[in-house]
């Protein structure tokens, strides 16, 4: 080794560490080529560029290549010497972008000597034989973004649409008031103060203020261009096909849609222009696998029924929810919440509330199955009844004397149900509730749900309270709708949201004894014809059960109505409704047009 080389190695070690010399020179041409290849494989653009005779141009081109291929891409580069010319090497590139996504090709590079040092002569073709100055690489996942999410009849619920992302630069934060004025028709919560708060919460130079649908953007586009610092970037987004469509049943569908189009995605690697009027335009195709056809994500929802449910709950100021399920299929037909309910979260599927007298369906079923009563059995319905120092009253302590069980059910006699519940075993109500689906844990693709909880009642007082849907019993509106649908089906249903996506349950489906189901359906019809829901006598074939359930300090009650009409099983809840009347009204507003269509 010459004194000059030793001196250079020592200087290099002092300045850059012992590994730094290989970045800038090589003992021979093949060493230079291997150093270049190894730096590329490490995705070290600076090191690869420094091993060439034009570090600036090479580093910029290699950085652009790595950026274009994506951070998740892996790269291997092997060197072979063609023929007798040891100054030239073949670089075998092997890119991987995930399972079954590989791109391989060969490129040629030449080493050149400068004094005692060897470097790779910079040429864009060392990265790819088709690459020229002013071009770079671009990897793309090619997906069927136009795949829609539909209702059960193929009507679109969610579609891929163009939106405008409206942003503001920090430099022009004083434009916040003007921007808020323009955006107020779309979101009246946007103010100069909220925009200032966004800037305060980030160090970014630009914030996103709102995302607008394309038709909304068109109405204010000119105004936005006149506000300093405002930018609008168009991008795609999965949105409801109808801007008025809103349901907690839709919340998990974008994730299922994303998985479906990801699973069917194709991919491509393209060389694109980096300059001039054709910037971003493809110049050569290096690899392409087209996406497979992705069928629409078809749900069990019914767009017409969903719209009717939304209209019905919107008439109430208090938090109001309606869930409808098909007894014949178990498919969720509609799930609607008004604005007050939305403020409390997806309570249609995950809220837990005492069901009140709607739970008498379960209590009555348990009593009939146990042989304690039939619909015609005379039962006492006094104004109050006391069990283990727990006094249970009827509403306003009404007293019917002795009446058939069917009348006590239709008129919602708490005292009758309390007496029957007191005669049942501790586990009778939990077992019957699970047969109806309450307490069953369902895993439904696209949804997070609870059905409710019905613990064992170990004391007489707990039995009577649980028997009238108070005490430790809770249900969600979804769980109560599942119970009604199971009754209509004749066995525990398996609720579903996406066609072809199987629901699992921690409890197998069980049949509802036919005689019990028939008796309950008859008593529910009587509740509408001559009981607590006579306001819905005009709804053909409707059977149901009203309910009020005290909560908190027992000064207020939730209002419920649940039932079956045709192939629609439903549960309606008005949080803090105080009586069942609002829930009955909302249910009627939904059912009348639903059954007329």
Question: How do you describe this structure in short?
Answer:
The protein contains 19 helices and 25 strands. Helix 12 (360-369) crosses helix 15 (428-435).
Spell out the key features of this protein.
3 domains, 5-stranded mixed β-sheet, Beta-lactamase
Structure in words:
Residues 322-578 form the Penicillin-binding protein transpeptidase domain. Residues 276-296 are annotated as: Disordered. Keywords: Signal. This is Penicillin-binding protein. Residues 276-286 have a biased composition (Polar residues). This protein has 597 residues and is an alpha+beta fold. It folds into three domains: 21-133, NTF2-like, domain 1 (Nuclear Transport Factor 2, Chain: A, Roll), CATH 3.10.450; 149-270, no CATH class; 303-596, DD-peptidase/beta-lactamase superfamily (Beta-lactamase, 3-Layer(aba) Sandwich), CATH 3.40.710.10. Helices cover 32% and strands 26% of the residues. It is built from 19 helices and 25 strands. Strands 6, 7, 8, 9 and 12 form a five-stranded mixed beta sheet that branches. A five-stranded antiparallel beta sheet has the order 14-13-25-24-23, with helices on both faces. A four-stranded antiparallel beta sheet has the order 1-2-3-4, covered by helices on one side. Helix 5 (176-183) packs across helix 6 (192-200). It is elongated and about 115 Å long. The termini are far apart. Mean pLDDT is 93; it is low at 1-25.
């Amino acid at each position: 080794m010459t004194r000059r080389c030793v001196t250079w190695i020592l200087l290099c070690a002092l300045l850059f560490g012992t590994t730094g010399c290989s970045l800038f020179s090589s003992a021979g041409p093949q060493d230079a080529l291997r150093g270049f290849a190894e730096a590329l494989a490490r995705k070290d653009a600076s090191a690869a560029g420094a091993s060439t005779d034009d570090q600036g141009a090479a580093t910029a081109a290699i950085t652009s290549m790595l950026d274009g291929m994506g951070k998740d891409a892996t790269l291997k580069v092997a060197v072979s010497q063609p023929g007798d010319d040891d100054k030239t090497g073949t670089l075998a590139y092997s890119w991987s972008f995930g399972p079954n996504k590989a791109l391989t090709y060969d490129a040629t590079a030449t080493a050149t000597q400068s004094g005692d040092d060897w470097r790779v002569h910079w040429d864009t073709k060392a990265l790819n034989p088709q690459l020229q100055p002013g071009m770079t690489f671009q990897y793309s996942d090619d997906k069927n973004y136009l795949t829609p999410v539909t209702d059960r009849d193929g009507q679109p619920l969610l579609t891929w649409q163009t939106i405008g992302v409206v942003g503001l630069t920090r430099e022009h934060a004083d434009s916040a008031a003007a921007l808020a004025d323009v955006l107020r028709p779309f979101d009246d919560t946007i103010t100069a103060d909220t925009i200032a708060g966004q800037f305060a919460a980030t160090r970014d130079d630009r914030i996103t203020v709102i995302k607008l649908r394309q038709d909304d953007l068109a109405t204010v586009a000119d105004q936005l261009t006149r506000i300093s610092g405002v930018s609008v970037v168009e991008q795609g987004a999965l949105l409801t096909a109808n801007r008025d469509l809103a349901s907690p049943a839709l919340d998990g569908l974008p994730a299922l849609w994303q998985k479906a189009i990801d699973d069917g995605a194709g991919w491509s690697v393209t060389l694109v222009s980096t300059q001039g009027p054709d910037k971003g335009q493809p110049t050569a195709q290096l690899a392409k696998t087209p996406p497979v056809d992705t069928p629409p994500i078809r749900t069990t929802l019914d767009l017409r029924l969903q719209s009717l449910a939304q209209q019905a709950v919107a008439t109430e100021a208090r938090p109001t929810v309606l869930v409808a399920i098909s007894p014949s299929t178990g498919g969720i037909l509609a799930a609607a919440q008004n604005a007050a309910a939305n403020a409390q979260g997806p309570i249609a599927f995950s809220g837990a509330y005492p069901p009140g007298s709607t739970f008498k369906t379960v209590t009555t079923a348990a009593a009939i199955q146990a042989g304690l009563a039939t619909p015609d059995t005379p039962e006492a319905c006094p104004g109050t009844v006391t069990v283990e120092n727990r006094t249970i009253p009827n509403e306003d302590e009404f007293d019917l004397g002795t009446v058939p069980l069917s009348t006590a059910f239709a008129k919602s006699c708490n005292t009758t149900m309390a007496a029957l519940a007191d005669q049942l075993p501790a586990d009778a109500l939990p077992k019957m509730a699970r047969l109806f689906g309450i307490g069953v844990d369902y895993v439904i693709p696209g949804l997070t749900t609870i059905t409710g909880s019905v613990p064992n009642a170990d004391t007489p007082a707990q039995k009577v309270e649980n028997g009238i849907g108070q005490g430790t019993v809770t249900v969600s509106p979804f769980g109560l709708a599942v119970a009604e649908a199971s009754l209509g089906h004749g066995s525990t249903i398996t609720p579903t949201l996406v066609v072809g996506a199987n629901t699992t349950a921690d409890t197998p489906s069980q049949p509802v004894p036919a005689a019990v189901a028939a008796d309950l359906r008859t008593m529910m019809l009587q509740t509408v014809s001559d009981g607590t829901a006579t306001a819905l006598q005009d709804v053909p074939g409707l059977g149901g059960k009203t309910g009020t359930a005290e909560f908190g300090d027992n000064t207020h009650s939730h209002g419920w109505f649940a039932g079956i009409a045709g192939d629609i099983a439903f549960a309606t809840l008005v949080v803090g409704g105080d009586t069942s009347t609002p829930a009955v009204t909302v249910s009627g507003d939904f059912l009348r047009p639903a059954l007329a269509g």
